Amino acid sequence: MFQLIELRNNVGIRPSLFKLEQTRAIKEVLNTKLANKVLYPHGLCIALHDIIQIGESFSFPGDAGTHTSVLFRYIVFKPFEEEVIIGKVRRSSPDGVWVTLGFFEDIFIPEAYLQSPHRFDQEENCWIWEYTDGLETHNLYMDEREEIRFRVCKIEFNDVAKRAPTQDSEELLPMKIIGTISEPGLGLLSWWKEDNI
Fold it and tell me: Which of 44, 82, 95, 194 is most enclosed, with most CB atoms within 10 A?
């Protein structure tokens, strides 16, 4: 789910950061530049792990800051395909279910990847798994904020800088995880709890 990647970047340090020790100033600049941003094809940047190498600093005419080549490692969030993750139902729509992990909310489970048979309840605004145990049918609701276990099918990256803003914000997601719950053991955790005897 979390990976450690090695990157090299030219770090510009503004004069207002000169009062800090160089390593601390570089850490601040890198975290401001990368934290909570999607870096293709690595994933969502979380935090700086460590600095491996700091090169020489240079100043350029007309620029009061310094520029330094830095080799560093960064923690990123990018689950691998087939990984099973637990999140919470964020919202439902006739197209499927949106899931959140708290720090990442762009996880979508399309209608075709839900447990079958299922139906969407317009009044409750949620999906219902119509589970049959052989004797009767039970309606198992997928309510918001319920914990859900899903398997990652694929990760989609979009270059949002090249797209014009549209009404549909789902098209503007820089990173979107597509998941499934159409297998035994997947879905709401409450569906799979064993009875206490």
Answer: 44
